[in-house]
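Lab intake sheet, docking and co-folding queue.

SAMPLE TYPE: protein with bound small molecule
LIGAND NAME: coenzyme A
LIGAND FORMAT: SMILES
REQUESTED OUTPUT: full 3D complex as structure tokens
PRIORITY: normal
SUBMITTED BY: R.K., bench team

The fields below were copied directly from the construct record.
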Amino acid sequence: MLDVIKCDLKKRREKYASRFPMLSALRLAVAVALLPQLRTVVIYRMSRWFRMHHVGLVARMLDVLNIQVCHCEISSMAEIGPGLEIAHVGGVVIGGGTRIGSNCLIFQGVTLGNAYGPRGIKAASDKRIQPTIGNDVTIGAGAMVLGPVIVGNNASVGANAVVVDDIPEGFVAIGVPAVSRPAVKA
Ligand SMILES: CC(C)(COP(=O)(O)OP(=O)(O)OC[C@H]1O[C@@H](n2cnc3c(N)ncnc32)[C@H](O)[C@@H]1OP(=O)(O)O)[C@@H](O)C(=O)NCCC(=O)NCCS
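RESULT FIELD (auto-filled):
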């Protein structure tokens, strides 16, 4: 658990160290510890650790703490790789069947969950009902990724998009329902 938290911290430290080169590692660690964006990730990492060690009650209590303190509902049953960054807290919902790779950036108001409708819950042939997100993916504010869709590595989901189909690697998806197109190189 500590190794994964170190990766989450490292990502932020790199980001802020370039902006504040005079900031010592200790002061930076204290500053980062005060950020709710980091706190929500640390609470998730702890709850995930308890979940993996079969202490489900503590995991659930930490999940509830995360909702109450950070207004983020990140299930301890979700599998999330190292280097997760939540850009702003509030309204983030990540369901228990979701898988997220390394170094992903998630903005406020994002929902990653199942596609529940009157015809029931949409499931993939491998029984997945929630999204699988690759590495280095950015998911913009208010976006929803619903059902067993696969979001490729380095893809971006635009703000307020509703993704119900797979996004190829490196593509950008925008709109409702989201349409994917290759990313425009800067
Ligand atoms: C989708 C996104 C990744 C695209 O970035 P980009 O590749 O640099 O694209 P551009 O800004 O050049 O826009 C390309 C086109 O998509 C449109 N577009 C951009 N973002 C859009 C969105 N979220 N929804 C619908 N259309 C969008 C633009 O209007 C433009 O349309 P046009 O080609 O008809 O002129 C980016 O716009 C985005 O939504 N990022 C999330 C940012 C965020 O959540 N910020 C929160 C800050 S708190």
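REVIEWER NOTE: The mean pLDDT is 90.
SIGN-OFF: pending second check by T.M.
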